[in-house]
Specification:
There is one protein chain. This protein has 256 residues and is mainly α. It is built from ten helices and two strands, in the order H-H-H-H-H-E-H-H-H-E-H-H. The chain has two domains: 158 residues, no CATH class; 69 residues. The chain is elongated and about 80 Å long.
Length: 256
Amino acid sequence: MKLGLVLSVLSCVLLGANAADASHNWGGIDVCKTYRDRVPPGIEPSLLPEHDSRGAKLLQRYCTQCHELPGPGHHTAAEWPAVLERMLLLMDVSQRFRGLMGNIAAPSADERAALGAYLEAHALEPMRGTPRGPGAAVFRQHCGTCHALPDPGQHDALEWTAVVRRMQRNAEVMQRGRFDAPAQQAVLTYLAAGGSTQFIGDPHGAGVPTPVRSDAESDPPGWTLGRLAYLTPFFGVAGLGGLRWWRAEHARKARP
């Protein structure tokens, strides 16, 4: 019932939205600009883990239809299923309208499984503890703003340098604060030290780690107000589209 409501509302978008003047759009909306604070700049295909693998190619084929190429490290393995489910729903809705919202293709069941396995296999590894040591506060402040705190052991020092520079650019584009040179150096210093951690209730590190919670984990499976709110911009365009359609129909019927 709720899915039918969403499909009905989105149908108005088809009738009233103009094509966006951008390289990535969905139903006439530039996703990268509309969700600037949530959609980070894309990465080069060559930077994808196992970039020649089937999973990497599926990511490039389907995910760049509406926004720039994401890296598997944008989310943790626990977060990706909910994110992928949301994206697949939007692709399915688009495909139902047979290209009226853009030439959006949806992956097959087998491709969905392969894509999900690729994303989870190369997902961001979350830090299992509380940051301690030189640079820990800066690391927590800047790296925890957009995603779960990464495990310092996920990359070596050379790889972290490239990753941190890319995150600095992303933070500026997403308007998440200025990731300046001193902050960058503090983060690299912390990561180079291996990320000293301290677990709650156990100074030896054998206790229960502090959980890291992100937006992708905040909503339980199924339709919730949080998930519907994600489509708020589309609902707004839908209302305008419906009004424009009604006026066009009224003018057409008024002609002699």
